[in-house]
Write a structure and sequence with these properties.
By secondary structure, the protein is an alpha+beta fold. The protein is built from 8 helices and 14 strands. The chain has a domain of 89 residues: Sandwich (HSP40/DNAj peptide-binding domain), CATH 2.60.260. The protein is flat.
């Protein structure tokens, strides 16, 4: 997938006002309209201009796009950074019928529906629009449940028509056992209602901050456990960390690299709970002194072991 510089597509500066973006789009759209231009490349350029305007005309889409930074060039191979869109509050969905047929780049960034139900109207009153946001929490907080203060960036326009980010802070109760991709609904924290109608809701999507020990897969959790060669060769018991404390694990004799040992029910709490998988990672002691080198030399001489025997013709 290739990166698209939407500001370059519209020939505007990155700090252009919304009015400047609109004027640039109208000028270029007339210039490259397939019905008006004889340029054989007009249809492609017209579509490119329309895609850029779809993003930059919208305060929220533009703020999210700007979050990617300026380290990319048009046509460069691109993959969105992990959780690039976390920490922003958005209203409604990203796409509509006009966005059909836009590039893979657009679909990757904005091809998502609304996170919660749309606003509901009744008579002259209407419920405010539901908002959504993605936040990162610690995996341990999902294990135990917690209350945490989160900060959300809310894109707004200043008096000059430029996009600015307003910070909003909320105290959020994290339910015990919540999983990546699930949502917390905050009643009345969305857009304001009209005609005396109630405010919309805020749907907070959960993801986890990178963890030095654990990685999550649904309700299951994985831990890479360093082990010595003799622990896997001879077997034995070792202390293993879990998000709920240390447990004793039996390593079967003759275990191999990357063997998975399951601790049933030690994953995320739930009905049923997930499992914790311990993945064995064999670590060789370094031969940095004479004593260690003698041990390795003795092993080489006395053990009938050839790790490449299966490659013999």
């Amino acid at each position: 997938m290739q990166y698209k510089d939407y500001y370059e597509s519209l020939s505007v500066a990155r700090d252009a006002t919304q009015d400047e973006i609109k004027k640039a789009y109208r000028k270029l759209a007339r210039q490259h309209h397939p019905d008006l231009s004889k340029d054989p490349d007009a249809e492609r350029r017209f579509k490119e201009i329309g895609e850029a305007y779809e993003v930059l005309k919208d305060t929220e889409k533009r703020a999210a796009y700007d979050q990617l930074g300026t380290d990319y060039q048009t046509g460069q191979t691109f993959r969105p950074p992990p959780n690039w869109d976390a920490g922003f509050e958005f209203s409604g969905g990203f796409t509509d019928g006009e966005a059909a047929g836009f590039s893979d780049f657009f679909e990757t960034l904005f091809g998502r529906g609304q996170s919660g139900p749309s606003a509901r109207a009744s008579g002259f009153q209407s419920k405010g629009q539901d908002h959504h946001a993605k936040v990162l929490i610690d995996l341990e907080d999902a294990y135990h449940g917690a209350t945490r203060r989160i900060s959300l960036g809310v894109p707004t326009l200043d008096d000059d028509g430029r996009v600015r980010i307003h910070e909003r802070r909320l105290d959020v109760r994290i339910p015990k056992g919540i999983l990546k991709g699930q949502h917390i609904r905050l009643n009345g924290q969305g857009g304001p209602g009209s005609g005396g109608g109630p405010a919309g809701d805020l749907y907070v999507e959960i993801d986890f901050t990178p963890n030095s020990r654990y990685r999550a897969d649904g309700a299951d959790v994985y831990l890479d456990l360093p082990v010595a060669p003799w622990e896997v060769a001879l077997g034995g018991k070792v202390r293993v960390p879990t998000p709920e404390g240390f447990v004793e694990l039996t390593i079967p004799a003759g275990s191999a690299q990357n063997r998975k040992l399951r601790l049933k029910g030690k994953g995320f709490p739930g009905q049923p709970p997930g499992d914790l998988y311990v993945v064995l990672q064999i670590v060789l002691p370094p031969a940095t002194d004479d004593a260690a080198r003698r041990v390795y030399q003795e092993m080489a001489e006395k053990l009938p072991f050839d790790p490449r025997s299966n490659l013999e013709m």
